[in-house]
Amino acid sequence: IKPLVLRAKELGMTAVAMTDHGVMYGTIEFYKTCRDLGIKPVIGCEMYILASAPRSTRDHSLPYHHLVLLAKDNEGYHNLARLNTIAHMEGFYYKPRIDKEVLRAYSKGLIGLAACVKGEVNMHLLDNNLDEAERVAREYMEIFGPDHFYLEMQDHGMPEQRTINEGVRELRKRTGLRAVVTNDVHYLHQSHAEAHEVMLCIQTNTTMSDPKRMRYGSNEFYFKSREELEKRFPGETEAFDLTQEIADRCNVELTFSDGRAESLHFPEFPLPDGWQGTGFDYLIHLGKEGLRRHYGLDYDRPGTDIEKQLVERFDYEVGVIKKTGFINYFLVVSDFVKWSRGHGVPVGPGRGSGAGSLLAYSLDITQLDPIRFDLIFERFLNPERISPPDFDIDFCQTNRGKTIEYVTQKYGKDRVAQIVTYGQLGAKTVIRDIARVLEIPLSKSNIFCKLIPDDPKITLAKAKTENPEFGALCAVDPDLRRIMQHAELLEGFYRNTGVHAAGVVIGDKPLIDLVPLARDKDGNPVTQYAKEPIEDVGLLKMDFLGLKTLTVIQEAVDLVKLVHGVELDLNSPEFNRFDDEETFKLFQRGDTVGVFQFESGGMRRVLTDLKPNRIEDIIAVTALYRPGPMANIPSYIARKEGKEPVVYDHPKLEASLEETYGIFVYQEQVQRASQSLAGYSLGRADLLRRSMGKKKPEVMAKERPAFVEGCTKTSGMSNELANKIFDTMTEFANYGFNKSHAAAYGVVSYQTAFLKAHYPAEFMCAQISSEIGNFDKLPGFVAEAGDMGLTVLPPDVNHSLDRFIPEDGNIRFGLAGIKSVGEGAAQAIVAERKANGPFTGLIDFCQRLDPGIVNKRVLEALIKCGAMDGFGMHRARLFNAINFAFANAAEKLREKASGQSNLFEMLDAHDAGSAAPNHLPESEPWSEKENLTYERELLGIYMTGHPLTRFRRIIKDIQTSTLAKAAAAKNDHDIRVAGMAASVTRRISKQSKEAWAVLVLDDGETSMEVLVFSEAFKKYEGACVPDQPVLV
Hints:
Layout: H1 2-10, E1 15-18, H2 27-37, E2 40-50, E3 64-71, H3 74-89, E4 92-93, E5 95-98, H4 100-105, E6 110-113, H5 120-126, H6 130-144, E7 149-153, H7 159-175, E8 179-181, H8 193-204, H9 226-232, H10 237-249, H11 279-295, H12 305-324, H13 327-342, H14 358-362, E9 392-396, H15 400-411, E10 416-424, H16 427-437, H17 442-450, H18 460-466, H19 468-476, H20 478-490, E11 494-506, E12 517-519, E13 525-527, H21 531-536, E14 541-547, H22 548-564, H23 581-589, H24 601-610, H25 615-624, H26 633-640, H27 654-657, H28 667-678, H29 682-694, H30 697-715, H31 719-733, H32 739-758, H33 760-770, H34 778-787, E15 792-793, E16 805-807, E17 810-812, H35 822-836, H36 842-848, H37 856-865, H38 875-880, H39 882-898, H40 903-906, H41 909-915, H42 928-939, H43 952-958, H44 963-966, E18 978-988, E19 995-1002, E20 1007-1012, H45 1014-1020, E21 1029-1031
């Protein structure tokens, strides 16, 4: 959008209109950019309109036309948004369409233009039907008013447009309508025309060579100057001047929210029937009940000093919330969190700064005691810098939709919507998309993409410098040069829309009156404005985040109850003492594969060095194990062990830093330190923390003297020491972490570690099941289960469920975990087995299941991985009999349908079931290598053996350590290990720009990551391939 506005300024324009086809996605960004750059924004949309049919029609043969609508004023802007919403929600059929009935209803404040060659008036002119064109033009005159509808003349070098322009001139005489010269702009410069064609192919999934692909009739749909257009329309001065007149008439003045409650469109919470007080009274009522529940505190009769401090903190927070006007926000969030917990939707203990609120804890929005963890309310809602509170709530990933549905029902379907996201053409995506459009083989585009570093923020320009091999190839490879010709121009463009993973808005009125809406693939409303514009217009984004770990925890808890009859409450006061010895032993061993946030090899090594023995250590490590603060980990460990002295620059810092051994770890420590040293309020201290994080020189120049003066007055320290502390805190602010978030997620980590320590089979079943469909992660967790001493039993159509389940202290492989099977087929198999008993053979299996669900591909996967070994035949025989079995099953169904019977039906049901499988044709069995290869392909692991088995004697002679022992080996020892290369990931060094690799070695008992750095990779690249035996 910004290049468009800059180009308009460059050409001397005073105003510019943006009229995207059928959508208003970029409207707010366009409006603000124009205002910032000193040019007038004209808000509009090129709508699709049905000439004579209602918008609900599904008759694809009925034509729709284009109609340009411009917002004259704020009423027009809102009517434009309403029309756009109706087009998507009621008129969407291939395109979002309106009809003339709804246009009449919402035409006020709008100016209509006859549009391009696809405009209704213009299409009649193109057919030389002047009378019909006049009828339609007069109809639009009646809808908009005679001075609010204009004819259009365009010239992009297309003969059709010249025909239309002649008709427009005649129509002007007949109707008295005025015509305006317009320029249909789809790209900025004429040189961009081919890239635009490529982009159209990307959007429509066609290729440049396709004769039927969508294309424009010329290469002149670029931003022309008035001088260029005047040469094409000599003598049409009035038609040019009308563009300025229309721009002058369009005066939309949007006002944006400043974050204060009164500028937001947030719903009022419906108070329960019978409640006599206000919403504020109800909030206090709920809060007092929560204080009693969590602390045993009678709010009206506090006894101890701690109870008095709780009441004081509660009153303070409630006062701030009342003053800032966010009472309804707390009530709404509390309500849907409470509903979720009561309806089988697990909710996390907290996330982000909201965990620092005592009121949130008392309302059960969070389940983390802010007093116990010394969390700060002002980090969440600062009375000295009012901005909307933002509770990020984690829900069970599989059930969060239930909560969104509850909110939709409670506040109205017309007031709730999810938020749109825009998918961009990133460096790798644009390479692949353009390669497809240009019909360059996928194998070749994959080679190009592998040379681009794996960084979400990487650009093509950076890729050339970070990997010289890619830069060199761009210069010499003809296919890559063709791709790059367009890629560098299209990179960063929006490719598609999606739905925000968590963002939901709830309005105080129907959203159609506030923003334009679109629809997702299921027909649900989605805002056309993304996160930032949504906040601009006063809608408060609420994050309903899906956290897979909560699903894992709940499934593990359910399995514990099923298998052991034990009901675990991981939020009970007893559990929340965080003093379980076995859990901390697990952390100390670094046995944390599957433990939330602690799975990486580096994090596990830190744990073995740190030997955490309190929840505060777990929380601190989650904050420290990041670029920047990671450098403080050795000091943290040394100070914890007493090997390094804990030194404070000033005695008052001890209260803030004692928990982390004198090291700044959390943002809240800056606030506490500023409060104790400089006499700041916690709100003022939060402003200082924000300023330090932004590192704006002009702001810091003001903050430093104020802090130094506060320190000298409050703490009597020297200017020199005050400046030193200020510098320390400023440096820390670059990487400081939010303690409220670290504490909340630290608790989730502790919960997963507890489950793994005490209920390993149940926890690993839940963890593995959570990765069904993700064959990058699932095999690793299956291997971890084996390392834990749990036997992973093979999948079996007569014993497995769809998910992984405990079985006699071990783990039974879930059917949905088999590649190419899927959850639908797995659930169908389990349901049929439960309803009618075990399957007796292949034919019996095929006869009892719907081939539309359990198809040939599913059956092949089940046989090849060994899930039908229980039928007593080798896999090759079963596999080669698939067509025979399906034919037999089909014949059985035909006999049933015709009422005929056969010999088997006359036999005993058991005999019939056992006789059928014996009629499978004979065949040669597969080799052990083939069986193992199929197992790894479909299960991600070797199940019935390992390819290294035949090399065991050789391996024993040449390796000096197993992979399991190698994990505990000291860094300064040379060892030699053998394994299969389970996976190989190629990477590019940011420093040397050379290739290196990460190998995952698997020896049948455990697996280990091996880093093959550049020099070694050059020498052994040929050995670094999947399924290759490797000696390291």
